[in-house]
Amino acid sequence: MEKLVELLNSDDVETRQKAVLSIKNRKDEEFVLLLVESLEDSSPKVSSAALEVLESQGENIYPNLIRALQHSSEKIRKKISKILLHSGGDLVSKLIQQAKTNNEDIQFWISEILPHFGALSLPTLIELSDSEIMPKRLCAIKALGKMNTIEAVDPLINHLSDKEWIIRKESAVSILALAEHSMEHILELAKDTEFDLQFWAIQILGKIDKPEASKALISMAMNQDTKVGHKQALINIFKSLDSVEFVPPLISMFSDEDWFIRKQAGEAIWEIGPEAEEYLVEALDSGDNNIRYWAVKVLGNLQSQYQTERLADILKNDKSWSVRAAAAQALGEIGLESSNEVLVGALKDTSEYVRKNSSLALNKIREVKEVRAESSEKWVDAYTYEVFANLKSKRKSSMLNRVKSLITDVPDFPKPGIIFKDISPLLASAHGLSDATKLFASSIKDLDVDLILGVESRGFIFGSALAQELNIGFVPVRKKGKLPGKLLAESYDLEYGSATLELQEGHTTGKKVIIIDDVLATGGTAEAVVNLVKKDGAEISALLFLLEIDFLKGAERLANQRVESLIHV
What we know:
This protein has helices at residues 2-8, 13-21, 29-38, 44-56, 62-68, 74-85, 91-98, 104-113, 122-129, 134-144, 153-158, 165-177, 179-189, 195-205, 211-222, 228-241, 247-252, 259-272, 277-283, 289-301, 308-317, 321-334, 340-345, 352-374, 377-405, 424-428, 432-443, 458-470, 524-535, and strands spanning 408-411, 419-422, 451-455, 473-479, 487-493, 498-504, 512-520, 539-548, 563-568. The chain is α/β, with parallel strands linked by helices. The protein has a domain at 408-568: Rossmann fold. The strands form 2 sheets. It has a 7-stranded mixed beta sheet, with helices on both faces. Helix 9 (122-129) packs across helix 10, helix 10 packs parallel to helix 12 and helix 16 (228-241) packs parallel to helix 18. The protein is flat, with a radius of gyration of 33 Å. The two termini are 57 Å apart.
């Protein structure tokens, strides 16, 4: 034994490998333990040999493998569990019996293995999930979530009413893992009158990306009988999902009798962002004072400049003093000097609160005007942009994170040393292009634009989508030789050689245009497009990029232009 240990500790890989293979027919515990230790050998040759020997020794080493599940190394425990998983034969029944022991380490790993044996292990896992011993129950519940069978659903649903919160939580996680089989059960739970069952149904549905899940959540939100705790859960889910389809049910919560629910619904809509504006404008016609109040308030928080006339009309004519007061506050938040006249008039309102909010709004607008008068226009624009970028960042964050997650790094492409930013997964995603387009549209909401110019080739994709979103025209900027007719051309330098871009003359003359492309790197291509468009007599409102590589300082070449990049790396 000492000689064998010495060989296994040798610096020579071949020596260690031969020593491992020499244990092939030794099945007593001390030799099995040496094989188990060799699973962590730094050389794949040695660890593979140890795994091969262990797998070849069959049921005779079963007790030793079970004990090895308590090894201090998780890596070894995982490898042992794989050996047991593929051992088959009579070991299955032995493993099922072993799962009923009270040894937590062994229990955990066997519970990881048992789901792979399907119907053979299901009754045991159900039995263990009802155990009074907490670790045993948790292991069994997690294992049931891996069973991929509808028979595992009902036992898990029963545990959603357990007195222990951790059991309820783990049962919900396992039900979610079985969503393919459990969808009908979950939808039924959503209608259940028992508080905990409905609460967990909401949590599970919020994690399922299917139309029927969204429909069920929206139905609960619109139901006046839904309990306050459930409404709070729904609001948090709508906020995290960040989709405009959840704005109508959130607006319906503006009429809730609980002020806190109304407030949370308003904050959730603010985080969803400018896409909610049209629904909020519709809500201004509601006969419910609370709905009008919160719709006005959120429009102000969203800086909805295009709604200033409507808000001014509400300030003058709405029958509810609280709605008029909210309109005054909203006009102050938007901060346009054109609102001064109606705010001055509101200083004579019959309501003290309306007069107070109108006065505060006038002060806010005046302060912005004074700052502008004392500061350079460029500084104010930069400051205002930074402030509003910070305000918008929270509500945009989830959508932007989704876009970021769909851009992958491809090393050494198109040549060694280059990390290529691949947007193919974003375009292939059901929501990727839609999210990017909404973020682009939001970033230029303050601009009056006639045309979108897309730069060959990926600028065509984003440009066409944005033009459709804004309901305006699209013009391509192409490489030399791709366009017919009378053309304008602009050449620019590349790392090796030069390139030429062309634009059909007259398409952008006298128009306000947005230039869009996928990546801003050194700025050479973008600068060439700017020069090209200027030759045609267009006014450039902004340049948009999906991704900007900051260290290449491309934006510096566009210093006189407004540049908006969704992602900076």
